[in-house]
Amino acid sequence: MEDKKLIFSGIQPTGTFTLGNYIGAVRNWGPLQDEYNCIYCVVDLHAITVKQDPVKLRQNTMNAYALLMACGVDPQKSILFIQSHVKTHAELSWILSCNTQFGELSRMTQFKDKSQRHADDVNAGLFTYPVLMAADILAYNADLVPVGGDQKQHLELARNIAQRFNQRYGDFFTVPEPYIPKVGARVMSLQDPTKKMSKSDDNPNSCILILDDKDTVIRKFKRAVTDSEAEVCYREGKDGINNLMSIYSTITGKDFASIESEFAGKGYGDFKLAVGEAVADHLEPIRTEFDRLSKDKAFLKQCYTEGAEKALRYSQRVVSKVYRKVGFVDRT
Ligand code: AQP
What we know:
Layout: E1 6-11, H1 19-32, E2 37-42, H2 44-47, H3 54-70, E3 79-82, H4 88-97, H5 102-106, H6 109-117, H7 124-138, E4 144-146, H8 152-169, E5 177-179, H9 214-222, H10 239-252, H11 256-262, H12 268-295, H13 297-326
Parallel strand pairs: 1-2, 2-3, 4-5
Helix pairs in contact: 3-12, 4-7, 4-13, 7-8, 9-12, 10-12
Bound molecules: adenosine-5'-tetraphosphate.
């Protein structure tokens, strides 16, 4: 790999990506390839922390892989692979879990949220999810991790684990930095703008999926919950409008002041329609490219097989050194 900083990021194959996943994370992955060495993966091991139908999981994983390519990740420029194909992630996760405190994991807000939402299955994997995420990153000694704002706490934990390991065993891991977009780091649900937009939300109107067709996108925006005023402006307390303005701003590149003047004197109906159209038009080429790629299963297989080989080769070097550092006997 070239002598550039290294980026790592992943996404769960828990369904079609939402506009939140796209704006907060995936949209930035393509452009970053020109500046950094990039390693991206579909994190299927993370996905099974909540119950998954095996047939659907396999399908969602293939779709997520093709979707990342459709969103601009180029397997010739980046290492793009499926997490379960690379055993070093799980191996390193065990070592890191022995360097992570129970109390630290208990403070993770995603664990608290998800254990409430999945009260019938609060499994150990859901609890140790952030350790596996730390292993994903540290197995490559990544410098930067592009994520949405909701992952900031997990990334902070990964940094603490790396620092603790370095203190205990001598400097080894790079302490990774978050790379969080300024606008759009937290895209909110269209039905409850105090909650983040999420793939696994039960209400289909709460999120835009990036494969939704134009009519569906416009219909969902038309139904978006706003407030009882009629002024398009970014202000505290106007969570619904603030969310739509942030979305419109990231998609069109317009700042809030120009959006406010564009819609001065117009109602929310006009604004919602404009947001819907801008988003749908922006997503259309992704849909077309996804349709093309997902028909070519042999090509996808070739890409993910080569991606896994490269990722294993790279991470194996790191994990072997970790084994030696903690005192495991060399196998050869
Ligand atoms: N609403 C959001 N706004 C901005 N960024 C977001 N991300 C997720 N939701 C938003 C970012 O997308 C990346 C991939 O996320 P993930 O699939 O690994 O897990 P998640 O954060 O748990 O995403 P979801 O959509 O909410 O999935 P489910 O419903 O399965 O839990 C991350 O960088 C994340 O920050």
